[in-house]
Structures are given as C-alpha cells and as structure tokens.
Amino acid sequence: MQTSVQALGPEWLDPQYIIEALGPWALAGVCLIIFAECGLLVGFFLPGDSLLFITGLAVVTGLIDTPLWLVCVLLVVCAFLGNVLGYWIGWKAGPAVFDRPNSRLFKRENVERTQKFFDKYGNRAIVLGRFVPIVRTFITVMAGVGRMDTRRYMTFSLVGGVLWAAGVTLLGAGLGQFSFVKDNIEAMLILVVLLSILPIVFEMIKARRERKLGAQGLAEDVLDGATDEPTQVIDTRRTDRR
C-alpha cells in the first residue's frame, strides 16, 4: 500500500501510516486503538472506521500476517471490552464525569450531541452509535451514567461490536482484493465514512415515516370523532306569527 491518505488528517492519525510504522506490532496497535476509542473519553479523536478498513486491506496484502478470522475476533473483543470499560467508568463516576469545563480533549458539544443521539434511539443507540465517530466513544460512558440495564447493554454492545469491528474489517479485506481499491485508498476511506452513516440515515427515514403515519392516524381519529357528534339542525324559519 503506497497511497498516502494524509489529506484525511495528521500523518500520525493516518491508518496506513499507523500500520506501516508499527510493523510486526501493527495488529496489537490496532487493537489498542480500537479499545481506547470505544472505552476512553480521550480516545474520541482516534481513527475507527478507516483504521478497521485499512486493517482488513493490510491482512489480504500480507502487511499483517494473521488470519483474517482471528483479526476479526480480536477486534470484536477489543471493541466490546472498550465498551465495558466505558460503561464501568460512567457507572462509577456518575454525572460528574461530564461536569467538567471545556478543554482541547473535552468539549461539551460532544456530550450534548451524544445525549441527543441516545435520547432519540434508546437501546438501539448502542448499536448505531458504533458507526458514528465521537458518539461511539461518549455513548458507552453515558449508558453507565444513566444506569442502563447491564445485561441489555452488554447484549447490544456485543451486537454492535460484531457489526462494526468485524463488518468494516471484512469490507476492507473484500474490497482490498481489487487493484482499483489499492490505488485509491483515500477515496475508499471517504466511502467507508459515508457507508458508516447509512444506519443512521435509515433510522431517520424510519422515524420520519413513523411520525408521518402517526400524524395521519391522529387526523383520521379527529375526523372520525367529528363525524360521530350529533349534528344540530338550525331552523331558520320564522316561528313568530302575527
């Protein structure tokens, strides 16, 4: 892989640079980064989707000399354990973990954005949040702060970890077999980012459709109620006789 993707961010955050720089320790480094992004608040800026995609590509090109199935398992485990850590931090620290002033690494708008996402999608947010940068970091802690049921959280977290960590890695491995993909890494990473938000787009369309159907149902109920009321007939004829 010779194509540079520095246009997507600083060189030290370039997934390709990370893997090539770590050499034989590339897989361990990727696992650590995925764990940190999913469980530590300071890891929100780390590359997630793009790193998983490049990792899959590195496996099929031989840069990472580990079976693809094992890579996927390790990444799913790291993503899941990261979520467990984030949940534990939120559970132990409580709301105070978000009650802090802005800094270079902590922004109130990131918390507010995640809160709105959580409020809108509920339990599904644990799965969908995997595909949204920044949200996937903060939402794990927020679930702990909100005392989300532990068993339910772990179930949704595992499902999300499989779909995200294994899914994006397999996507990179599958597309990495084509020379066009190898020669256009930067364009592929942009495509991965766009694909990662598709679940959110589908949820938005679904929610809009449900609101529309709900509004139509309410209008029909109002009309039905109006037609059921007795109609008063007003006799305009003059009743006084002279």
Automatic annotation (TrEMBL):
Keywords: Cell membrane, Membrane, Transmembrane, Transmembrane helix. Its main location: membrane. It is found in: Cell membrane. The chain crosses the membrane at residues 25-46, 67-89, 125-146, 153-175, 187-205. InterPro entries: DedA-like (IPR032818), VTT_dom (IPR032816). It is a multi-pass membrane protein. The keyword Nucleotide-binding does not apply. This is Membrane-associated protein. Belongs to the DedA family. One of its GO terms (cellular component) is plasma membrane. Residues 47-173 form the VTT domain.
